[in-house]
Predict the structure.
Amino acid sequence: MSNSKSKMLWIVAIALMLLGAGLTFFSQHSTDRHIRISSNPWVGFTPFIYAQEKGWLEKTPFRFTWVVDLSENARLYERGFTQGFTATQYEMLHFKDYSHFRPMFLIDRSAGADVILSNRKLEQLRQSRETINVYLEMGSLNEDFFKAFVAEYKLAELQFKLSDTSQKEVTQLSPKGAPVMVISYAPYSTELLKKGFEMVSSTAELQSFFVIDALFVDEHSISASAEEFKQLKAIFDRALDAMHTRPEEYYDVVRGYLEGQSYEEFMASTKQVEWLNQGDTSRYQRQLNLLSVVTDRLIK
């Protein structure tokens, strides 16, 4: 065989190998239509846990990734691992560019489930001359919540030291010693209250601060799967109905995600949110619009 023919066969063989690899890659990516969503065990998001554990998501394109820190939503999205997340409007607003995000449906309004805890009573904090260590998740709802609390309670003259701390880490804090404040939420706040921390404020008390949880998605995913998002909302509604009608069975299904919350503690946390998946939400849409959150894709 001549050298020219040998070279030609090698070129053809390599071309065929590259073509095969390209077709395999294209096939894998064209059939992988999964829309990946990050979420955490906040009480309002547990219907997604229930639906996942019951197998209701298997025939849909939606796959959930469970995280702890609120800031993990941004990291996962920015690295291309997810196309959406469940969060408050404040997590969305902390993105450098949030113009392409849309809430697909509203989930709940926090009505006491987000809390500010301390090892001092509020009046003791007001009179403190010591630096108060504040443990919170920076770049998230926690930071906005703390700022609103300081402004509404007129505490700006106090000395605060902010520490970026995950919810897993704050549950290890002790109420003994120097004055501290912790920004937390269910289910993590349950453990802190058991340890002896006291609640000094919550989203039920603050008048100047509202917190809406929703499913936020990159609008490019929305345009490709509008009907499937309607299906996901129907699944969410069905799971939430199970919580209302079969609470003990619901708790048994989701309990592995609840950081040790008892049935009674979990059910108490469900009373600290206002569910927004049904009914007229125009009031909350207007509030979101005032914060530059575009709500033109909401599923009714």
Remarks:
- The chain has two domains: 34-110+210-290, 114-202.
- Residues 21-31 have pLDDT under 50 and may be disordered.
